[in-house]
Amino acid sequence: MSNLNIESADEIEKERLKIVIVDDIQCSLVTVKRKLMGQYEVYPAESSEALFKILEKITPDLIFLDINMPGVDGYGVIKTLKEDERYANIPVVFLTSNNDKKSVFRGLDLGAVDYILKPFDASILIACIKKHTTVKRNEKIPQGSENDEKPRILAVDDISGSLKAIQQALRDSYKVHTISKPECVMDFLKLKKPVLILLDYLMPVLNGFELIPMIRALPDYKNTPIIMLTSEGTLNQIKEAMALGASDFIVKPFKEDELKEKVAKHINSEANHEQCVPAGVSSDLNCSKSNINAINVTARQIENDSSITQPLDELEDILSKRS
Prior knowledge:
Elements: E1 18-22, H1 26-36, E2 41-45, H2 48-55, E3 62-66, H3 74-83, E4 92-96, H4 101-109, E5 114-117, H5 122-139, E6 152-156, H6 160-170, E7 175-179, H7 185-191, E8 196-200, H8 208-216, E9 226-230, H9 235-244, E10 248-251, H10 256-276, H11 284-304, H12 315-321
Parallel strand pairs: 1-2, 1-3, 3-4, 4-5, 6-7, 6-8, 8-9, 9-10
């Protein structure tokens, strides 16, 4: 299976849990990483600032946090984490060389789920991870229902800036996975099922045109909305992509409101479509008609949309100027 680029937020999310270790002592970071890296994705941070930079890119399954650090100590860090709804549910385990009960109780009162005394053994770390990540995952699954986490979206673009912009725009409403290596997309789709895919048109190794039919060939993705991202595509290329199975397109650089609106529209449309198709009845015919209509609608939008009022023969110039 291909290795996904850890530069982006969720490429590294496969089967292995993501663990962050925060400690100002480099030796401790190296020790913990060495003990855990065989089973987990480990992210070391030497300070609170480094931790929050990591949290901009990933959502860890657990954080090991040293109490005694210069600047903002562990107590200050966990207080900030618990006050932010994005991080409040991440289990935090304190690492401390101080066996003072008062210090331990203070950490637990602030929201830590556990503490480990230094020096520690690898088996203790692993047991702690298993204990608290199992609880966390079980809490996400209500009785008698599937995991009710935010709708999952996959964004594919070889430009890290575009991926970060997509995450920033959508993370409040969706769980956004990002991949910067298009050759990793098919592996990801076998592990996770997004409700919508944002796919860049021009990428190395595999471009959007090549990926669309590959995705549509998967039984679970025949009707999943695919929105093309382009800064260089022409009208004919956009229509070709939609004929291959794309649902819509967005010109880069995009406005956040435009992205949010299109994503919500297609997710809602797909949900309504699934409800309207009787069990056991193929939706391929409806899907084909929908794509044909979408191509025509897209052409009309480019001609008539107030945000794209220029004639069609100027579209390439518009796209190049917005890149």
